[in-house]
Design goal:
alpha+beta, Trna Endonuclease, Chain: A, domain 1, 3-stranded antiparallel β-sheet, 10 helices, about 30% helix, CoiA_nuc, Competence protein, CoiA-like_N
């Protein structure tokens, strides 16, 4: 821990503490000792194992350095409390930023792995006190390739924040996209820039979700930027997965019953780049095409009903499911496939499967 209570009942930072003084844990009030040296970041630790749940022992150097660096940066402009003890929920976020307007912000600097259930519990606890929560990820997360599901867990309005103490590197990642058979794509900025500062201030970014199908508008990744070659590459990969038995047989059989083949799905299914899906873009788009087939030409379906069937294909923690769905519908509407009217969808034409 970075803070302890001295003999005058005052909070004291470990880097300003003296070995000759006595200190107590802010949570359990039991004695703590000051640990500092050339190899260690100054911090306090319990003298004996007390079962104190508010303060976790064994913090890494990266965690201590990162927490102090974040505090020093934001304490210039905000009232920041380090390691506040929230007794109502038995939690202690790393930082608590006091805002002049709106909800206060709890900042969690996460260096070690954390399970999905534990993450949800910590978020729910902080939200129950009316706090907003922001996660900043440490070097272990920064230096690895994060899965789509793990990325969604820590997103803050489409942004992911990192801090690497030893490099003094702060990075914001945003504008995530995922083309099938390629790694996750994103843009990034280094430094404590506008994106992070706006999040601390409580300002939310205006995000535009567009999923265009035209080659001059779509950002293709991989060995070629040519549309025809891109489609050929996607179909080849899809066929290979089918041969390897890595495609759901129920889907293959359903297509066969409808007179379709997986390697002949409409081109539109192979152009998806939406991030946040628990399945490949081609799978999500194909399901949508098949659902519209079942609705039938010149027939209506409620947007609510269609969206309910499609939400199961997103990661549960993804915050922007509705915006992706709306952007996908808008793409189909601009192509003349559907018409949107009064929260209802009219099927105007069906996307054609590719012939031999």
């Amino acid at each position: 821990m970075l803070l302890a209570i001295n003999s005058f009942n005052q909070y004291c930072f470990a880097n300003l503490a003296h070995r000759s003084e006595n200190y107590q844990c802010p949570a359990c009030k039991k004695p703590v000792v000051l640990r500092q040296g050339q190899q260690n970041v100054a911090h306090f630790a319990h003298q004996v194992q007390t079962g104190c749940h508010a303060f976790t022992e064994g913090e890494t150097i990266d965690h201590l350095l990162g927490k102090m660096a974040l505090y020093q940066h934001f304490a210039k402009d905000y009232q920041v409390v380090v390691e506040p003890v929230l007794r109502q929920i038995s939690q202690r976020p790393d930082l608590l930023v006091k805002r002049s307007q709106g909800k206060d912000l709890a900042i969690e600097y996460q260096c070690s792995p954390i399970g999905k259930k534990r993450l949800q519990e910590r978020n729910q606890g902080l939200h129950s006190l009316g706090l907003e929560v922001m996660w900043v990820l440490g070097p272990d997360y920064y230096h690895r390739r994060l899965s789509g599901e793990l990325t969604c867990r820590f997103l803050d309005d489409g942004r992911l924040f990192f801090y690497v103490p030893k490099q003094k590197r702060f990075e914001t990642r945003f504008n995530f996209s995922k083309t099938d058979f390629h790694k996750l794509q994103y843009e990034s900025r280094t430094g404590f820039g506008a994106a992070f500062l706006s999040a601390v201030k409580g300002k939310r970014p205006e995000k535009q979700f567009t999923l265009p199908s035209e080659i001059n508008q779509i950002r293709l990744v991989g060995p070629t930027s040519d549309l025809a070659q891109h489609l050929l590459y996607q179909r080849t990969k899809l066929t290979l997965l089918m041969v390897q038995g890595r495609i759901n047989l129920d889907l293959i059989n359903y297509l066969y019953e409808q007179g379709h083949r997986l390697d002949q799905i409409p081109d539109w299914c192979l152009l998806g780049q939406a991030f946040g899906l628990a399945v490949p873009n081609w799978h999500f788009r194909l399901v949508l095409v098949l659902l519209l087939e079942r609705v039938g030409l010149s027939h209506w379906i409620s947007e609510k009903s269609l969206s309910a069937r499609l939400r199961q294909y997103f990661y549960p923690s993804f915050q922007d499911q509705e915006k992706i769905l709306q952007a996908t519908y808008a793409d189909l509407a601009s192509s003349g496939v559907i018409c949107l009217q009064d929260s209802k969808i009219l099927v105007i034409k069906l996307l054609q499967f590719v012939a031999d």
